[in-house]
Design goal:
Blueprint (H helix, E strand, L loop, with lengths): L2 H14 L5 H4 L5 H5 L2 H10 L2 E4 L5 E4 L2 H9 L4 E2 L31 H9 L5 H20 L6 E3 H6 L1 H11 L6 H12 L5 H24 L5 H7 L1 E2 L2 E2 L2 H32 L1 H9 L4 H11 L4 E6 L3 E3 L2 E3 L4 E5 H4 L34 H18 L4 E2 L6 E3 L5 E4 L1 E3 L1
Antiparallel strand pairs: 1-2, 3-7, 4-14, 5-6, 7-10, 8-9, 11-14, 12-13
Length: 411
Amino acid sequence: MTANEQVSEQVNERVNERVSDWATDYDILDPEYVVSPYQVWDDLRQTCPVAHSDRWGGSWMPTRYADVFAVAHDVEHFSSRDVGVLTFTDEDRPPPPIQLPLPPIDADPPVHTWTRRLLLPWFSHARVAGYEPMTRELCARLVDGFIESGRADAAADYAQQIPVRVIASILGVPGDLADTFTGWVRDVLEFAHDEVRSRRGFDGIVTFLLQQLADRRDDPRDDLISELLQAEVDGEPVPDEIVMGIAALTLIAGVDTTWSGIGSALWHLATHPDDTRRLVNEPELMPMAVEELLRAYSPVTMARIAVDDVDLVGCPVKAGDKVLLNFAAANRDPDVFDRPNEVILDREQNRHLAFGAGIHRCAGSNLARMELRVAIEEWLRRIPEFRLADGAEVEWAGGQVRGPRVCPVVF
């Protein structure tokens, strides 16, 4: 057995170890939790609102809105230098050959401040409005590809195909590599616990971006990578590793998160025909519905590292401990949201944390909202009635990003 096979076997054994007590031994990769974590969150809020686990390197997990919100804003005591929800020891996995930062998401001020400033213009309301016609045409073309068959995988055939092509356009890279990009992103996020797959995804992204940087130096274009290479900070060019990191973050964060959001929304509509009919008959509800679907099925969990010893709602968090910002759990807190486990399409008070909070609030939120709205609108315009296929097994991914990966529907 090779070293990689040994690591994979150890990881599989860890995943298969059943949780004995969710307050002291939670496992964010537990198969049942990945499919439906809601009861676990409800129980923890009542009995242990800041749970702890030694699994995956150890972490704390607040589940109440107020606590998640507070940690997200407390940059003095909680650093973003490691936002991954899983931690591996040297025995679990050797470090990658290139340590690539992903600013601004894994940076603290002042690096966070200027790298975010470089990125934000590409996701402004005006820029996103310019991406909408392309996104709408793409969605219509995808539906064309399967509508005559009367069935589709709403996740793989539709949701997965949208964000990656929009992000490719922003980066100025070939859209026909969409499946390759998606594979790399899945390897990095969904299979972070698999040494072979995660290394493959990381290496693929780094190698590709190195080639893109070299191409842009010889042939600058109207895209994010070219602009970053031409930008300056304090009179100096932006370091190559920062350019690569921002581009890599745009790819990684812009693909799986939005795909998961679109897929979750379609899964909900496939299993809640009354909501589907209401959106078809009352299209003016779409803006509120998008916010509600984001709240109910928030895909992302991020991590923070305690800078020093700190008391977190009575829990003794030590310097270096990891705290998971479970935005999805916060968004189902009954102290903040009425009937939190119900999807209420016209919910008016909806200060959800689907895009995070504080200085690291998602820079691409405008883009994600647009893609989710357009994806649902174009689907319902052509397919106003649909449901899960008989006997269909919906497959969910969890960990850093939660969402359906297989969602067979018929119409």
